[in-house]
Amino acid sequence: MAEFFKIPKLGMDMEEGSIVKWLKSEGDSVEKGEPLAEVETDKSSVEVESPASGVVLKLYCEEGVVLPCGTPAAFIGAPGDAIPDVSAQSGQSDQPAPAAQPAPAAAAPAAPAPVPAPVVPAAPAVPLPPVTASVTPGGRLRATPRARRLAEKNQVDLRAVAGSGPAGRIVEADVRAYLARGGAARPARRIRSETVQPLTGVRKITARRMRQSLSETAQTNHRVDVDVSNLLAFRKQVNARLESQGVKVSIVDILAAACARTLMEFPEANAALQADGLHVRNYVNIGIAADTPRGLVVPVIQDADTLSLPDLARRSRALIEKARTGALLPDDMSGGTFTISNLGMYELDSFTAVLNPPETCILAVGRIADRVVAENGQAVIRPMMNLCLTYDHQVLDGAPAARMLQTIKHYIENPVWLLL
After folding, report:
1. Nearest Cα to 365, choosing from 381, 349, 376, 377?
2. CA atoms of 310 and 413, how far apart (whole Å)
3. Is the confidence at residue 168, as pLDDT, over 70?
4. Which residues make beta-bridge pairs with 21?
């Protein structure tokens, strides 16, 4: 049965979208449920399935064009089906209206014969420099791989070597003979080039949202070092207890639990500044920034403040797996109230993260590393981790933000409190 593929509405707030990439071309067969296009939303880009089986008879829109949700983008049917005129359905036509034909004019008197232009003698042809047999008509040197490797090793410009192979091809013996004659070794001239890669998909979305973040918020940050000795021991005990259930709690899971508990104590940090005022929530949705082959995405753990640590770990693991396989839906990335960005696995001690609008805070997490610290007047070695809280100073003042970060620190250094 013939059917339109329309720009889908992939989220409650989505009003328009665009085709980032068509996964099928006109004339290709497609099965119902098979990915047909990659669609860009305001959060990310996702693969959308075909609504019907058949042949892609028509693609109505090009990649990158933004259209309202519900706009027909493709037509799927059987070979020979009539292709609907989408523009006609919308009251528009792709063809321009025919221009009015002017009335025939009276015969005009014959024009005088044109005066021939003076003959200008052609400039003498300038002979082109001869092309050696070692160069193809396209300008590429004919040379064997062994000759190229030997020339590269000795920094020989192959254009200075005469070829003795078929059709003037340069062989290894030609390069050796050139070197034996004392041929000058000179590096081949470097040809500089650059390519333009249009911003598309997740990269385009991230660029837009980061510009919005920096232009619409007053971002500042606080930093603190945290002793994670108790956290590491706590995690080891919890995972030993949960091993039979197939659940493994990560450091970020414990951080998410600590942040969720803290945000309920500091509701302003969990708020969003909107045009009509400050929206203060009584729930916590934690976003976990994830690096994927498709780019940066932020899956959101909904109602993190109500989840036990094992349930939070299960939810986090499922979302991260969907992110890595490109299976996240817009609803999986919507509604965040706070974000955690962890780059400790890349050996970064600390970094500053950019707010994920319209959230008020984001927590940047550095690596865990042994450091020398003072304890009771003695130098001791402890596993330490740096946390950097970026916050919108329009919403949160410095002292409350500092108290909030201090509270997160206390939960991490005393993780058993999360069980109370």
Report:
1. 349
2. 19
3. yes
4. 38
In angstroms, the CA 204 to CA 209 distance is: 9
Edge-to-edge, what's the strand order for the sheet holding 45-49?
Answer: 45-49, 35-40, 16-22, 66-68
CB 10 within 8 A of CB 40: no
Predicted TM-score of the model (pTM): 0.65
Distance CA 58, CA 277 (A): 47
Burial class for 185, CB neighbours closer than 10 Å (0-12, 13-18, 19+): middle
58-67 burial: b if 16+ Cβ within 10 Å, else e: bbbbeeeeeb
Could you give the CA distance from residue 147 to residue 172 in angstroms, rounded to a whole number? Answer: 4
Amino acid at 167: A
Catalytic residues: 393
Rounded CA-CA distance 295/206 in Å is 9
Answer whether 356's CB lies under 8 Å from 37's CB. Answer: no
Contact call for residues 363 and 388 (beta carbons, < 8 A):
yes
Write down how long the chain is: 420
What Å distances lie between residue 403 and 166, 223, 273, 305, 355, CA to CA?
80, 12, 21, 19, 19
Distance in angstroms (rounded) separating the CA atoms of residues 126 and 305: 82
Q: pLDDT tens for residues 213-235?
A: 999 999 999 999 999 999 999 99
